[in-house]
């Protein structure tokens, strides 16, 4: 995890992106950094958490609304990244969109 301790006031939405990468970078790292910068300016974006091991990656982005998620999916630069992902960077992936109605946490 990226260590974020931010919490958001429910209700909000979570987009869960679970992926299995292909081998090699082939521009993935540079594109991921560009997408992080771009999404941080997207209206309705709240934050992101991500974890990856050698086989599996899980990224959860948080959003104010379904409309904000839809607008991000339609973003032209993001669409280019999505196509590159299908062609070069991912063996497979799945996306789940959830409404967060309640949250709680523990910290030592």
From TrEMBL:
The reply on keyword Oxidoreductase is yes
Q: Which residue numbers delimit the ABM domain?
A: 32-83
Q: Per its UniProt record, what Pfam families does this chain match?
A: ABM
Superkingdom, natural source: Bacteria
Q: What are the UniProt keywords, alphabetically?
A: Monooxygenase, Oxidoreductase
**Molecular function as annotated in GO:** monooxygenase activity
The family database entries (InterPro entries) matched by this protein are listed as: ABM_dom, Dimeric_a/b-barrel, Jasmonate_Hydroxylase-like
Nucleotide-binding recorded as keyword: no
Report the protein name in the record: Antibiotic biosynthesis monooxygenase
